[in-house]
Write a structure and sequence with these properties.
single chain, 141 residues, two-stranded antiparallel sheet, 7 helices, globular
Length: 141
Amino acid sequence: MAGNIHTALFVAFIEMNSMTQFIHNAQDSESFSLYAGIRLAELIDQDWSRNKSTDLAASEGINLTDRHWDVIVYLRKQYLAHGLPRFARTMARNLNKQFAVQGGNRYLYGLFAGGPVTQGSRLANLRTPANATDDSFGTSY
């Protein structure tokens, strides 16, 4: 009898919460665009500015150019639209497609030697997706 109650409660919960956050490929991002307002508030609360990113980049030996800013702005827009990717590989793939005309990964690693996802996210003041670095192989997305 207890199992039936739990099943009924679970079904009622699913019906009441249509779980719309999983409409946009649940494997690739933490949430759907439905929560863009929450992420926008999070980005506003960060008090991020280009000056802060420029200072951070300078401390890492990078002089930010318009090409760097294109990537940083793209990362922030992607975060706002889709949330944090569950895996760094997802964002690396998206960046590669977005900047394919410029040279894809080769172009991106030329801009961000520490990895376009890892270093780019840090400079964009975003959380870094899971598995962005693999110390055992010395790699970084």
